[in-house]
Structures are given as C-alpha cells and as structure tokens.
Amino acid sequence: MEHRGGSRQKGDGVPKENSPFINNTDDKGNSYDGTNMALFEEEMDSNPMVSSFLSKLANYTNLSQGAQEHEEADDDEGPKKKAVKSPQMGTFMGVYLPCLQNILGVILFLRLTWIVGTAGILESLAIVGLCCSCTMLTAISMSAIATNGVVPAGGSYYMISRSLGPEFGGAVGLCFYLGTTFAGSMYILGTIEILLTYMVPKAAIFVADKKEDELDALLNNMRVYGTCCLAIMSVVVFVGVKYVNKLALVFLACVILSILAIYAGVIKTIFDPPYFPVCMLGNRTLKNHQFDKCNKIEVIDNITVTTQLWNLFCDGSQLNATCNEYFVNNNVTELQGIPGLISGVISENMWSTYGPLGMLVEKSNLPSVEGGDPTQDIYMPYVVNDITTFFTLLVGIYFPSVTGIMAGSNRSGDLRDAQKSIPIGTILAITTTSIIYITSVVLFGACIEGVLLRDKFGDSVKGNLVIGTLSWPSPWVIVIGSFFSCCGAGLQSLTGAPRLLQAIARDGIVPFLQVFGHGKANGEPTWALLLTAGILSERNIITFGLLFSLLNRFFLMCYLFVNLACAVQTLLRTPNWRPRFKYYHWALSFLGMSLCLAIMFISSWYYAIVAMVIAGCIYKYIEYRGAEKEWGDGIRGLSLNAARYALNRLEDAPPHTKNWRPQLLVLLNVDSDQAVKHPRLVSFTTQLKAGKGLTIVGNVLQGTYLTKESESKKAEQNIKAAMSAERTKGFCHVVVSSNLRDGVSHLIQSAGLGGMKHNTVLMAWPGAWKQSNDPQSWRNFIGTTIRETTAAHQALLVAKNVDSFPTNQDRLGEGTIDVWWVVHDGGLLMLLPFLLRQHKVWRKCKMRIFTVAQMDDNSIQMKKDLQMFLYHLRLDAEVEVVEMHDNDISAFTYEKTLVMEQRSQMLKQMHLSRTEREREAQLIHDRNTASHATINDKVDAEPEQVHMTWTKDKLLTERNRNRECNANVAVRDLFNMKPNQTNVRRMHTAVKLNEVVVNKSQGAHLVLLNMPGPPRNRGGDENYMEFLEVLLEGLNRVLLVRGGGREVITIYS
C-alpha cells in the first residue's frame, strides 16, 4: 500500500495514470491526454489522433512566399520576432482585377483598330475567338488543377510541376517567368510610346535632326524613360503587394472609364458623329501632319494661291511648278473618318485587306487615275503599310492582349482561398474581356472608315489615336486610360514574375537559383525582384520589347502544359484527382492544347522552335543537375500505366529469337559491413548491357527480416551507390532468408515481374571454396545456382577472377576476345562478344572463335562451315579449329584424379567424425537420464539392469578405442583406394582442354568457355568443382557460359 501511495506522488519517476504513453515519463510533446484510447498508444508517435490531426489541418495557413523560411530564420530573435499574417486577399482583389488589368492592355488601345481594318470584321472575330477560346479552355483546365488541393505559392508553375514533374514544371516555369518579364518590358515600352507620342511629345530628350536618325532618337528616349519608369515600378512592388493593389484600383478605374468612353462614343455616332476628316488624293490616304487644308489651291481675296499640300507634291509654290503626275491627274477629296454606327460602313469593313510592306492605304471605291513613277511614292506623304500583313501574323500580334490569365494564379500565395478564387476570378475576367474585345471588333468596323482603321499610327488624323477619335467626350480619356493601362499591366508583371521565380528557387530544382528564394520577412521576393528589374534594365528593355513573338511562345507553352497536365490527370484517373471544379473534360483540355500548339506555329514557327529549344535545354539541365523530387506527378503515373500496358503485352507471348537479349539477374555478394565485394561485376554488367534491357542486382542476407532490416536497407543503399558509380541502369533486390541457398533460389524464381523477368544469371566464381571448411559454399553454387537455372531454362554466366576485369574507365587496346565453342547450347557464346564490343571498353578487341575437332572430324570442312555460319550471323571473327587426339591418359592425370578423390574422401571422414561426436554426446545424455529414472522408480530392480547404465569414464574409453580402430582402417583405405574410371576420363578432358586453351588464349583479354553440366549424381559435386578448377587453371579472365536451352541468335532478318 505504501508503494501504491508513493506511486501517485509527483516526481517519483513513475508515469502518471493519465499519460498516453505507458513507457514515457515526459508528456511535453504529446497531443493526446487520456485513457480511452490506450489500445492505440504505441503508435501515436507515427499515427496521431484524428483530433490533433484535424486541428493541425484547420490551422494551416497559406503563407506568402518566403514567409515560412523567414519565420525559421527569425527563431533566434526571440521576442523581437513579429508574427506573419496569413494572406487575406479575396477573389475580386486577388484574381479578377489583376487578370482584368493584365488582359486589357496596350493592344486594345493601340493595335485593335488596325487589326480590324487589315483583317476585316469576320477574320478579326476569328482571331479574337481563336485566342479567347485558347485562354478560356486553359482557364478551365487550370481551374480543375487549382481546385484539386491547396495551391501554395507559384501558381501556374506549382500546378505544372506537381502534375507533370519537376523537369516539365521547372522548364515551363522558367519560360513563363521569362515571358512575364518580357511582357513587363512590352508594357513599359507601351507606356513610354503613349507618353512621348500622344501625351507630351516635347518631353523627348533626344530629337533627330534628320529623318534617318528618328529611330535612334526614339530608342534612346525609350531607354532613358523606360529605365526611370522601371525604377519607379520596382520601388512600388518592393514596398509591398498591397500598394500595388491600391494603385491597380486607380489604374483599372481609368481603364474602365476609357472603355466606357469608347462605348459612349459609339452611341454618340448614331446621331452626332465626331468630325475627323481624312484627306484623300484619288483613292490614296494622305498624312496630314504638314498641311491643314485638304485642297490643292484656294482663293484668297480673289487670288488663287497654292496650299501646303501643293508644296508637298510640287517643286515650288507657283501654279506652273512641276508636280507629281499622280497629284496632277487626281482630285483631292475629304472623307468623314468616323461616319457613324448607322452609316453602312460595316459592309465595306467586313473583308480583309492584306498587303506587302510599303503598300499604299487606299479606298477601293474612289476614282483614281494612275500615273507617275511608283518608286517615288515612298517620298510622298502617303499612309503605307509598315509591315507585310497576313492572317497568322495578326494572330501573333493580337495574342498578347489575351495573355495575363495567370496573373491571379501567380499570386496564389497571397490569396485567402486559392481553390475558390482562382477558378471564379480567372473565368470571370476572361469572359469580361472576351465580351469587350468581340464587341469592340464589331463596333470599330461599324463606325470607323476602313482607311482610318488601317492607319496604324493615326497619321491621317494628325497623329491622334484612332480609337481616341471615336471616344467621347475627348480623345484624352483614351490616351490617359491607355497610359494607366500599360502602367498597371507592367506593375502586375513585376509583381507576378518575381513570385514565380521565388517559388521555383525555393523548390530547389535549379541549384544556382536557390538564392532567389529569399526575401523580406513578410514574404516579398526581394532578390527575385532585383533580378527581374536587372533583366529589364537599360539596353535589355529595348531588345526584349522587340521579341514579343518569343514572349507569345513562352505564354503559349505554359498554357499548353496546363492543358496537358489536366488531360493527363483526368485520363489516368489517379485516386488523388478529385477537383472541386466539375466543369472540365479531357477532350476540352486536348482541344486547348491543340489550339496552343497551332497558334505557336502558325504565327511564327521559327520562334516556336526557339522557345521549345530553350525549354528543352532547361528540362535537360534540371534532369541532369537538379534535385530529385517526387511530387506524385502525372508523368510518373503515365509511366506506370505505360509499364503496366507493356508488361501485359510482354506476357502474351515469349520473345522471338531476334528480340532476345540477356536480361540479367546479377548475384552480388556483400561483406559484413554490407559493402559490395566485387564492384567489377557491376562494371561488367554495364559493359554487357550498355543500359539496354533488364538488369536486377540481387543479394541475399542470412537471418530474419525483423532482425536484419537495417542491414538490408544499408546493403541496398550500397549496391545502388555502386550501380550509380558504374552507371548501371537497373533495379536492386535484397532478400533476407533463413539460409543462403533458399534466398538465392527465391531470387532465381521470383525476381522480375510478368514478362519482364531475367533470362540470364551472372555471378562471380566462388574462389575460396577450397579454403573454406564449410562445404555449403560450393554446394549452394552447384545445387542451387547451376541446377536451378538449368531447370528454369535460364542462361548462367560465371566470371572467374572478376576483380581483374576492366572498369568502365579502362580502354583495352588491341587484343582478342576468345570464344571456345565446344558444345552448342543456343549461340549465347557468340552473341556475348558482339554485345561486349558495343561498349567502348572492348571496342578495339577482335573476336576469335575456336572449336574442337575429334579424330573422326574433317577439320578443314569444319572451318569452312563455321566461317559460313558466322557470315550468315553477320559476325566478324577469326575462326580456328583445334584438333584433340585420343591420347593415352597420362600419369599426371591419373595422379591428379587420385588426389582429388582422396581429398574428397578425407573431407567426408572428417564430416562423419563430427556427426559421430554429436551422436555420442546425445547418447550420454539419454542414457544418464534413463539411469536416474530407473534408480528412482525401480528400487527393487535386478542387478543386470543396473549394469546397462554407462558411466562417463567407461563411455570415453570405449569411444577412443573404436575411433582409433576406425581411423586406422580409414587411412589404410585412403592409401589403398583406386580412382573412379569416370572421374579419370573427366579429369583427362579437363587437363587436355586446359592445355589447348592456355596455349592459344593465355594472352587474350577475355576467354569465353562452355560450362560443363553438373553431374546427375549429387555425390560427385565436389569432384565437379575440381574439374572446373583444372579446366580454368592458368587463365586470367574467364567467363563460363551455360545456355538456357533455347536459341538466342539467328541467321534470319
């Protein structure tokens, strides 16, 4: 009772009753406290209670990128550490607005009217429909992936990498990062173009004195202003994403006002079209920068005078001056640039007007009289095409206006509920912008004159934005709106790109990028932002701005792989594929993927190839140098499905002789420390296989799995390390068995799967079998390996002196691989040298084939037949026939056989003596036990029964006397025995064949020899080992070959 009472006191070292772990005196880390679940308490370290598991899951916060690692870095700061708030951005602010702002960019305001004028309304609708369909299908696929689990930082990169693996994810993620960065340069250039062309032209720092210097001046201005704009945007992004969102609201408000101004202007054209006249000479459109009146002459105070337009086409202002012939032959007329919605101009703008570079912008239904030198037209103030136009080019130019659908998913780390926000926000944004683009195409074509639509830079309306001429109340609304639109889209690119790079860097799949995974304590990607700004700075901003076609390919590649990821996951039907978004289908994903691929190539096939090469290089780099990641991706699932399908096909029928190749089971030994004993055997495997076919490296440990689990894991790791070092592609299989014989038997029987099983066993020669007192080593070799491989119809390769075989780094010089073809067992002897010579180690070696002729054979005819056979087999080899005559058995052979049998007999005697000793000890124990029982139970027993009990001394005396007698008899028998005649003949064969082989092949790099079959009588197993030792004596590298009982080489094609 005292002990019980003491056990309840605190601090006595006895666990409390309510402790969940019986053997634990420290409850500090336990998440469970109670006695109701004591049955499960042994597993609570690895299997937590459901209550604590759900608690941890409920407390999960999708921290901003970089926040978690900074929490870990700040652990040493103690009370100074500030708690990182979990992200609180919703669908509207976090996804819808960023997507809307990125999609409604510079193309809408600067290029859409020109696309409508050039392609016509119908083809423009086809372009818009094609691109918007592509992004909508991608958004559907992305929604399915985004709702299939938590989407942390990284957005599109995270989705692709977790669905298709780190190689695809890293390659496409980095390309998408570059694409987003290049898009930022495009938006910054658009901002500067609007600023210097339409808002404050006088702000230009560099002004060209000559017309040919205008391009250089423009580029220099863009460099200066672009760098300043980039610096301001970078500072805003560096301060924090919430400030970007606040500015984004302002910018987006301006964009929406601009769009509303366009719709208001369209409505106003119904009853009061704006006055924007376009001056036409004949049917040609004129630039009106240098003249105010669309007249050749005018009357002022009854005096006819020439106008500014006259001076542009004539060599003087006089009425009799020499003028351009076309100017003389055609009248000047004025067209209403915006005739209005009900003017009927929509019928003229319905069809396309493509043309080459320098083609004049003309109105076909106006009268025109040709004349003059066409080569002089470039010096006249005509509006002309600045590029050659065609449908696929316009697709490439328009496509950037629908990109930006990933703007929300790229900021997934800042969203409160990414699974809900990404699908709704992205699809709503695409729907909204698609409606805006489609209605804009129709309304522009219905309101604006065709020649004005095709005037890309508004030269016919004094440099005004063409879309600005349509808006109400003023063109400045559009100018300001487009300016802020470009600013906002640039900010979104600078916000999304560094976060994408940070997510890639923190995954560690590209080692040299890991530094960019760091950032501020609130998760802002500082280093990634600096790299992005550095890429965009100074000269690069111009270069990347001109590579918008490459930008398209990067975006399209990302969209393609998002669709592919969704299609693969859907078709594989993996158990983890349970998206909450239900409105997807693999056919839609494949359609989206096909559209992405089509747009990539039809708009610019060479840029598509460049983008693919860049992505391919990144893929191979990650595969070669990147960290190995296992994310349960779809490519692995696809590989498993393909493997299962292939295995099922292989199971249907055995391989044809033409397809036969050695599928190896390599029996590799390890020492007591589980280190590989013969690594050269692994090297030889690589040289024989060259990475083709199946290779299983097996090992057997003696014991039980429960006690040898750690040794088994260590042995497996060491074997895999040896395989990796020797570049052996294959699998490792370590078996723990109660004895080595059973373990090897299990490997031979069960290694492999289905039709992908080994057909050849490779092992090292048991060189220490003579020195070992335990005969089990050579018994396992003969009884298990040789006999069981023969029974299983598998080939057997035994490498003698394997430690002297070449490594994969060695390069053997001129030499030979000698094949001794004694008996035909399927042709494996001739196939192996051919396979070895495919490897660079053996490439310079020549192949020689020796065959043995008996007295009755025609050796000359045998050589001819063998040469013809090798010719049909397409094997290059020297042929030699060796004659072996029936000589008398020499005294040496007789003596060697006698010594072999005497040794075998002595070992049997020794083994018998040990058995007898064990039997005698058991007899002592049994008889002593019986004597004690007799004395206790039968006191009145007769004297004769007592004499039957042996004493220890009497037993020892009797045993020694018998042993001396038996030993004398055994020794006399050993010296008087005569060798078995069968063994003498076999030894004679081994000796004579060894003499011939050593004479011919002692200097060969490798000798391949038929392996004789084991004796049918198991009593001769030890003699069999002696025969093989004699046969191989004096040879350095030998490979004994035993066929599997089927043909492995054929003369047929």
UniProtKB/TrEMBL annotation:
Q: Which PANTHER family does the record match to this protein?
A: SOLUTE CARRIER FAMILY 12 MEMBER 7, SOLUTE CARRIER FAMILY 12, CATION COTRANSPORTERS
Q: Which GO terms describe its molecular function?
A: potassium:chloride symporter activity
Q: Which InterPro entries match?
A: AA-permease/SLC12A_dom (IPR004841), KCL_cotranspt (IPR000076), SLC12_C (IPR018491), SLC12A_fam (IPR004842)
Which key words are in the record? Cell membrane, Chloride, Glycoprotein, Ion transport, Membrane, Phosphoprotein, Potassium, Potassium transport, Symport, Transmembrane, Transmembrane helix, Transport
Which membrane topology term applies here?
A: Multi-pass membrane protein
**GO-annotated cellular components:** plasma membrane; synapse
Q: Where is the composition biased (Basic and acidic residues)?
A: 1-15
Keyword set includes Iron: no
Renumbered to this chain, region (Disordered) spans 1-38, 65-85
The answer to whether the entry has keyword Membrane is: yes
Pfam families linked: AA_permease, SLC12
> What is the designated name of this protein?
Solute carrier family 12 member 7b
Q: What Gene3D superfamilies does the entry give? A: Amino acid/polyamine transporter I
**What protein family is recorded?**
Belongs to the SLC12A transporter family. K/Cl co-transporter subfamily.
What sequence ranges are listed for the domain SLC12A transporter C-terminal?
A: 679-782, 800-1053
Top-level taxon in the UniProt lineage: Eukaryota
